[in-house]
Specification:
This protein has nine helices and eight strands. The protein has about 260 residues and is of the alpha/beta class. Strand 6 (about 155), helix 6 (about 160-170) and strand 7 (about 175) form a beta-alpha-beta unit. One of its GO terms (molecular function) is hydrolase activity, acting on ester bonds.
Amino acid sequence: MLVDSHCHLDRLDLTAHDGSLDAALDAARMRGVGHFLCIGVSADNAAAVKSLSERYADVDCSIGVHPLDLEPTSQPALDWLLAELQHPHAVAIGETGLDYHYEPEAAQLQQQSFRLHLEAARLTAKPVIVHTRAARSDTLALLREAALPQAGVLHCFTEDWDMARAALDLGFYISFSGIVTFRNADALREVARQVPADRLLVETDSPYLAPIPYRGKANLPQYVREVAEFLADLRGVALEELAEQTTGNFKRLFPLARVAG
């Protein structure tokens, strides 16, 4: 069984499934995907991800505010985040983090929000899902400052081995998306070969970043199998072994998730 450890089910382009989320999830299940983590990115979509986790037994959710969804006049409040995280199917915090690629001018605002999410992780003991782009040094500095007792994950990893190793040293997991299949991702593939098997996750980040051979099309949870097949071949293991390992890793990282088996 595979787990799509990071997907945005409330944002999927469902054209290929006649507008039906039920059909999209069934298509993924038919390809061996047994669980989905639907990611919170804003206060506005918190209700949607919680509702999806209530609707489907194999969907859990996270709650958080993405660094590119922050508003200078309406920072997320710790009380709000802690209250939302009390939902029984909210198994993680985020996605949160830093993105200086698109909004370097908002670095201070992003750091304040990231610290708030990390404080919520400390208070709830729930794992944190980290988005980082063009902010390597500050991301690691804030994670070290937080010194969380529980693990988290750097999702949709695109950085180099030095950053991966630093995150691993902090107890974090590394998750790979369809980007690892892209033709210009040789450096990332080298990282994917080196990540220890017990710290590896797979994801789609759908509807974004569809893997080869679907690049340029809307991504769907069913394509996590393409990511897993590619990684299994890259690492020289059977797909079944990689699926078992990454699913076990997911269950260990997100112990509150309702993963079958």
